[in-house]
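Retry 2 of 3 after timeout on previous attempt. Resubmitting structure tokens to design endpoint.
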């Protein structure tokens, strides 16, 4: 259920973009993101910092998009969010426990260099996504950018998680459950 809520704003944006335009899509994205946070709070009693960051960015850049009738602002939001995530992940790597270790390392006994490599991979991926979004947003059609934002960035994120899982696989704890006879 929680994973389904993650895609609610993106799906609402996509549908409203294709039914109407980028401006209706942006307004729907803003409302759907607020609804997402309310549902996360009601159903799971927790809202992650990344959700708050996304909401603030969507409200700021969405409002500028709607007020100025300029889609460049909503396009910039994606680049800025990915850049912020890269900076946060890099900052945690330098000054605290790496974010991937906090998120994935519960029972995993991976050496520090492994978590550093995962962090650096995530930082590179976020900066890469930010640069790719910038290039596509301002050099391709609006429709191409919308499809990239929804499907391309989702695919790249899934690829990153798969590569991370493969890289960390040998450090995952073995199952201790034994079948009873």
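Retry 2 succeeded. Sequence:
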């Amino acid at each position: 259920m929680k994973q389904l809520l993650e895609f609610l704003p993106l799906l609402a944006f996509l549908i409203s973009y294709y039914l109407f335009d980028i401006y209706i899509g942006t307004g729907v994205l803003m409302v759907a993101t607020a609804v997402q946070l309310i549902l996360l709070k009601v159903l799971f009693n927790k809202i992650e910092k990344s959700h708050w960051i996304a909401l603030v960015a969507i409200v700021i850049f969405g409002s500028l998009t709607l007020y100025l009738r300029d889609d460049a602002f909503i396009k910039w939001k994606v680049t800025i969010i990915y850049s912020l995530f890269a900076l946060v992940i890099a900052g945690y790597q330098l000054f605290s426990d790496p974010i991937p270790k906090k998120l994935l390392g519960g029972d995993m006994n991976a050496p520090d260099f492994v978590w550093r490599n995962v962090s650096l991979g995530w930082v590179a991926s976020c900066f890469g996504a930010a640069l790719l979004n910038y290039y596509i947003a301002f050099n391709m059609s609006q429709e191409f950018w919308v499809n990239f934002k929804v499907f391309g960035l989702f695919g790249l994120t899934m690829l990153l998680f798969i590569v991370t899982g493969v890289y960390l696989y040998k450090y995952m704890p073995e199952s201790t459950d034994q079948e009873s006879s």
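Attempt log closed. Residues 1-68 form one domain.
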